[in-house]
């Protein structure tokens, strides 16, 4: 097994080796180890270093390489690393990152740290950074880059071609599929396709080569609008205008896709009770415990409310103790069925095939599934109860209760995300607890009321 | 309220209006309604039409516009629509879509339908389609497009520029940031940047302008490798080589980002018990019920296994009926805590900051959080039990059980995704049921064993 490539990667990636070399001050050996790693291995090794060694490693890598690593790190790790660096060193790394990634990292820092780092940038860069950090993450201004080509409308083709050649190094990381053409006030008047530039006579002014009246988005347009824009247009990027109509950045399709992927991950994490959608086990213990508890403590109160329904029917339970075995089953299965309906509603909302107002339509589609699945599951549980205790009435009570409560669960599960969406509450985090509380109360009530109504036949 | 933009959109989007106009045969009016809609509204309206009207609408739109709509539809809706069309009509729409989207739709059809449609393509297109459909969705071959520019290594700059001008219309939807340069056997020998073409003397051969020995991926390389590739490189696309080393397509960064976003959505849906990660309420009722049941039926069996622990301790429960109130609370809360740990492990696996082998490390990080959260939740539940029944021993039993079982739940929840990943089972769908079954059994066992050991003090 030792020859497997996996084994080799594991060895290369051992953070202890890296740490030992760093402690020994053997800079050449550290760089040699890094050279053998891909970015993914670097991320893993970096995340395992003690906090004080992380800043040291970044310095050792040099600003260019450190900038690449920072961009590959999960956001909380990246900002922690920046906080540990001297502001001047952090600024040197920052300068080598694209503007939207700069703003993401700086935006995560507290104001003092951010201010100190920004203080080490050139006046122009500092001004731009303050402007970018002010945008929320999920609007065009927060997703745009300020690295783009723009030329004056009166410039000639030859001047553009000369500029491209002269500044080739600066433009190396730009997306130069398009350049933007502006008037004397910075207003966007056209888009220039590089292919058109290729084919144009060199002395023509840009106004004769550009595509006039280009589409654009506003700097405060939300992510949702950008998703729609790129769904409806095949462009790789869209220019962003500020309130005054001046060109201030470009949002690339890739940035929007990445933001959507992160949104999907956050949805999953929120649904599982990770508030804020972010936790890494390298974070401080008390922070992790506190964040998880904030969700758990709401849930335990809701659970007690639901269990109070059982407490109110203790006499029934005392008479038919077998019911206690079925209560957790009914609670858990109704939760499962309801969560499936929640997931489908979330999916349909994301895909735009249901509107938050269409609650009746959703409920109707769920009732039918709930009836079928409830019938199957209820029969199964009823037969098990009958066989176990030899009492058909017990089977009827628990099977009937599960059937009825499955319908309740899918109806509530299907409707709750739509209702929360309309109320502008994040359905991912809130739908689960609401669902389980209501279906538990309902399930306990149904089974215990059924049972007490035919108590003489159950005992 | 009538003036709100929302109201207008709702009205524009009413599928009944569209259906009436179609039934009346008023083609001009239908197109006028469509003209007022954005793509998102078209998708919503389309999904609401009766199945037989959907094909009719696509024909009415014309192939160019129908192709745009098909690409915006959720995949199951798109393939249903294709099945309903005459193969010749479907082929006409298909021809207007990019090759990777063509393959996605055709790949969803059953073999007969797919064969009939492919039969109407030109021989060359049909050959290419059969080749593309054979790739799984999540390898380079399944994500690549075959619309790219390639030129022979001996061609001159002037020829390329002339070709770009002559075929401008065909290339309109291509990403022409790069062109690929091949030898006489189709082997990839270089990449040509359009900006370099711009600045090159017109009579130079491409071999003097291109970047030689370009990076590439293999057609069977998995999504994971592509994600790493684009993490580590800033390119917007990467050329794909087949087994013989011949250039066969280009994977764009956007296609990889989209595939990752879909993977995140599937993870969320799977975790909520939507097997296969796809359900829309427009699908047939029995299909929806059957798919959901496949997961529910496994769960109900697991639930019964867990509940058998209660059944084995019925005498204890009979003696202290109040315990029945706490069993569902302990079951649900342990599930919540465990699911948080599952979510963090899934997240860390996705981000690459934990390896599937690092179970000890994960367990250690969870035990500490479990102890803190278990202590807080256990104390809370214990005090409630004490206040309710005035019996400190009852508080000790249920509080202690919840504390202990919280630790069990986070340890299992943290470890299970890693174990499943190593066993090559999808952790998203399987982790939840395994977690809840084990923690339920464990929780019921702990509370009922504690209780029976101090039965005299509880009654």
Provide tags for this entry.
homodimer, CBS-domain, alpha/beta, 3 domains, 23 helices, elongated, three-stranded mixed sheet, four-stranded mixed sheet, 459 residues, Tetracycline Repressor, domain 2
What's the gist of this structure?
The structure is a homodimer of 459-residue chains. Chain A has 459 residues and is α/β, with parallel strands linked by helices.
Question: How would you explain this protein's 3D organization?
Answer:
2 copies of one chain form a homodimer. The N terminus of chain A is likely disordered. The first copy, chain A, is built from 23 helices and 7 strands. The first copy, chain A, folds into 3 domains: 130 residues, Alpha Horseshoe (MgtE N-terminal fold), CATH 1.25.60.10; 103 residues, CBS-domain; 175 residues, Tetracycline Repressor, domain 2 (Orthogonal Bundle), CATH 1.10.357.20. In chain A, 67% of the residues lie in helices and 6% in strands. In chain A, the strands form 2 sheets. A 4-stranded mixed beta sheet of chain A has the order 1-2-3-4. Chain A has a 3-stranded mixed beta sheet with strand order 5-6-7. In chain A, helix 15 packs across helix 16. Chains A and B meet through helix 4, helix 13, helix 14, helix 15 and helix 16 of A and helix 4, helix 13, helix 14, helix 15 and helix 16 of B.
Q: Tell me which CATH architecture of the largest domain in chain A applies here.
A: Orthogonal Bundle
| Structural class based on helices, strands and sheet pairing of chain A | alpha/beta
Number of helices of chain A: 23
Largest pleated sheet of chain A: 4 strands, mixed
Strand order across the largest sheet of chain A: 1-2-3-4
Which protein chains are joined by the largest interface, and how many residues does each one contribute?
A: A-B, 116 and 116 residues
The CATH top-level class label of the largest domain in chain A: Mainly Alpha
Residue share in helix of chain A: 55-70%
Backbone CA Rg of chain A: 30 Å
- Total domain modules of chain A: 3
Mean pLDDT across residues of chain A: 86
Distance between the termini of chain A: 63 Å
Subunit arrangement of the protein: homodimer
> Could you give the count of β-strands of chain A?
7
Sheet-strand content of chain A, in percent, reads 5-15%
């Amino acid at each position: 097994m030792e020859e497997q490539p996996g084994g080799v990667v594991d060895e290369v990636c051992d953070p202890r080796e890296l740490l030992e070399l760093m402690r020994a001050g053997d800079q050449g050996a550290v760089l040699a180890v890094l050279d053998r790693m891909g970015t993914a291995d670097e991320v893993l090794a970096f995340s395992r270093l003690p906090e004080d060694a992380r800043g040291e490693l970044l310095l050792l890598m040099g600003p260019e390489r450190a900038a690449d690593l920072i961009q590959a790190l999960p956001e909380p790790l990246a900002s922690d690393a920046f906080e540990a660096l001297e502001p001047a060193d952090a600024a040197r790394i920052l300068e080598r990152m694209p503007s939207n990634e700069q703003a993401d990292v700086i935006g995560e820092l507290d104001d003092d740290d951010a201010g100190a780092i920004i203080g080490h940038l050139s006046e122009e860069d500092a001004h731009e950074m303050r402007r970018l950090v002010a945008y929320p993450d999920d609007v065009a201004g927060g997703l745009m880059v300020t690295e783009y080509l723009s030329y004056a409308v009166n410039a000639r083709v030859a001047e553009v071609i000369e500029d491209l050649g002269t500044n080739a190094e600066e433009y190396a990381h730009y997306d130069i599929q398009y350049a933007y053409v502006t008037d004397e006030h910075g207003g966007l008047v056209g888009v220039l396709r590089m292919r058109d530039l290729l084919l144009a006579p060199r002395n023509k002014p840009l106004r004769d080569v550009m595509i006039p009246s280009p589409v654009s988005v506003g700097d405060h347009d939300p992510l949702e609008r950008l998703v729609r824009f790129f769904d409806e247009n095949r462009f790789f990027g869209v220019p962003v205008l500020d309130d005054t109509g001046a060109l201030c950045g470009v949002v690339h399709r890739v940035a929007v896709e990445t933001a959507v992927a992160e949104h999907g991950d956050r949805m999953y994490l929120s649904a599982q009770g990770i508030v804020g959608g972010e936790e890494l086990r390298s974070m401080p213990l008390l922070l992790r415990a506190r964040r998880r508890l904030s969700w758990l403590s709401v849930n335990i109160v809701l659970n007690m409310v639901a269990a109070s329904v059982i407490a109110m029917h203790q006499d029934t339970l005392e008479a038919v103790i077998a019911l206690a075995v079925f209560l957790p089953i009914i609670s858990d299965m109704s939760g499962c069925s309801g969560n499936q309906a929640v997931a489908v509603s979330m999916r349909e909302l994301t895909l735009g095939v249901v509107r938050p107002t269409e609650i009746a339509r959703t409920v109707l589609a769920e009732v039918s599934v709930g009836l079928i699945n409830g019938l199957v599951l209820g029969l199964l549980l009823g037969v098990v109860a009958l066989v176990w205790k030899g009492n058909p009435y017990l089977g009827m009570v628990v099977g009937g209760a599960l059937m009825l409560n499955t319908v309740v669960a899918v109806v509530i599960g299907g409707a709750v995300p739509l209702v929360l969406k309309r109320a502008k509450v994040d359905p991912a985090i809130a739908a689960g607890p609401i669902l389980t509380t209501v279906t538990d109360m309902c399930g306990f009530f149904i089974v215990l009321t059924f049972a007490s109504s035919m108590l003489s036949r159950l005992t």
